[in-house]
Design a protein that fits this description.
It is a single chain. The termini are far apart. Helix content is 14%, strand content 44%. Strands 3-2-6-9-10-5-4 form a 7-stranded antiparallel sheet. It has 169 residues and is mostly beta strands. The protein has one domain: Pnp Oxidase, Chain A (Roll), CATH 2.30.110. The radius of gyration is 17 Å and the shape is globular.
Length: 169
């Protein structure tokens, strides 16, 4: 097979290659939350996937070195929040290492199963964790939907080329 002249030279698989390729992949932005004792934890995720309709199940990836991993590794339930364009700052806060993610101006409340639920999301779910599958330096978390609310208003927030972006028509 001959390479097209318009294509660059293929490179060997490395973490940088994977990151470079996926910077070109626009992804929806979610925040995953969990309770860790009396302390809420959370992180921004672009790896959220719908896995199954029957039973309703989702998945997301989390690095084992992430500050939220200890909580997610033990949590029975997690919150999944689909962010809107109006929540760029919230996405950045939950993506930033060392940030006070649940301090002002973050607005949240304790939801079903004690899971922290973020106010103002386009939609949210509370899910029961059913598996944590090793995947390199990450874990793929599979979780069954318990309850949720799809009624938020607005347009989805996207992540592309290392930035949070608005959906354009």
């Amino acid at each position: 097979m001959t390479a097209s002249p318009a294509l660059g030279t293929p490179t060997t698989a490395t973490p940088d290659l994977l990151r470079s390729v996926f910077r070109r992949h626009a992804a929806g932005v979610a925040v995953i939350t969990a309770a860790h004792g009396s302390r809420p934890v959370g992180f921004t995720a672009t790896s959220l996937t719908s896995v199954s309709a029957e039973p309703p199940m989702i998945s997301f990836g989390i690095g084992t070195g992430a500050s939220s991993w200890p909580a997610v590794s033990e949590a029975e339930h997690v919150g999944v929040h689909i962010l809107g364009e109006h929540q760029r700052d919230l996405a950045a806060t939950f993506a930033r290492s060392g940030a006070d993610r649940f301090g002002a101006p973050t607005s949240w409340h304790e939801g079903p199963e004690g899971v922290p639920v973020l106010d103002g999301a386009l939609a949210w779910l509370v899910c029961r964790v059913v598996a944590r599958v090793p995947a390199g330096d990450h874990r793929l978390v599979l979780a069954e939907v318990v309850t949720g609310d799809p009624a938020g208003e607005g347009r989805p927030l996207l992540y592309h080329q290392g930035r949070f972006n608005a959906l354009r028509d």
